[in-house]
Specification:
Strand content: over 45%
Low-confidence stretches: none
Number of strands: 19
Number of helices: 0
Structural class: mainly beta
Length: 243
């Protein structure tokens, strides 16, 4: 099964486009199993998102351009760039502020934790290359031996820069309990016979796919274990869109 998501249902404003993936398959859950919400942000330099709370969310900051200064309630200050990814595991409650030092385009990804009220934690990772050309790269998972960015639910996040003349399939053979959400961050791609443009996405279940592009496509792939536990009442990853 491959289902393209209707982008007309996205929320947000001129700076942030918000995808609640569950709304396309359910009337009661805004998330898709452990995948809570995906924000594609395009924010100019000088903006400051003042100190604000997060509760029971695992938040991956995946920026492809720009520079952001992160300050949190523990007095910790760090910078997020395309070469420096950040996973913030909010747990019971955590506050942080983001100052946009250079214009940013990227994703803020809200993953549901495996259980509520985990110990808050901020983790950084600096991949060897900003882009993984024509090869799936696992950037976050529940397995500390595989990824430095360790999610607290059974969720795996991959990325790839697919270039002209190359095709790809899923990074693993489809398994009955593992469902996939493919998000096109930049460019255009053909998935089987479905056309995707920037910001579009689709669900994949019990089927492999073939992905190709005429030019380049920046892909982000989410894999969620539908049989694994997750907590669905997080501040942003939970059902907070007005259901």
């Amino acid at each position: 099964m491959v289902i393209k998501i209707d982008n007309s249902k996205k929320a947000g404003n001129s700076h942030i486009s918000i995808l609640y993936p569950g709304l396309y398959l359910s009337k009661t859950d805004t998330g898709y199993y452990s995948i809570g919400r995906i924000d594609q942000a395009n924010i100019g330099a000088g903006a400051v998102i003042k100190m604000h709370p997060h509760i029971n969310d695992d938040i991956l900051s995946y920026f492809r351009s720009g520079k952001v200064k992160h300050t949190d309630s523990e007095g910790f200050e760090e910078f997020i760039t395309p070469g420096r990814l950040m996973l913030m595991k909010a747990g019971k409650i955590f506050h942080h502020e983001e100052a946009i030092l250079e214009s940013v385009e990227g994703l803020q990804i809200f993953i549901r934790p495996g259980q509520k009220d985990n110990q808050p934690e901020v983790i950084f990772d600096e991949p060897e290359e900003i882009y993984s050309e024509n090869k799936w790269r696992l950037i976050a998972s529940p397995n500390r031996e595989k990824t430095k960015l360790q999610l607290s639910s059974d969720t795996h996040i991959y990325d790839m820069l697919l270039t002209s003349g190359h095709t790809t399939v899923l990074p693993e053979e489809p398994q009955p309990d593992m469902h996939y959400l493919l998000y096109l961050f930049q460019g255009e791609a053909t998935v089987n016979d479905i056309q995707l443009s920037k910001g579009e996405s689709l669900f994949v279940k019990d089927e492999n796919i073939s992905i190709a592009t005429k030019d380049r496509a920046e892909l982000v792939l989410f894999v969620t274990n539908t049989k694994a536990p997750y907590y669905d009442d997080g501040m942003y990853s939970g059902n907070k869109s007005g259901l």
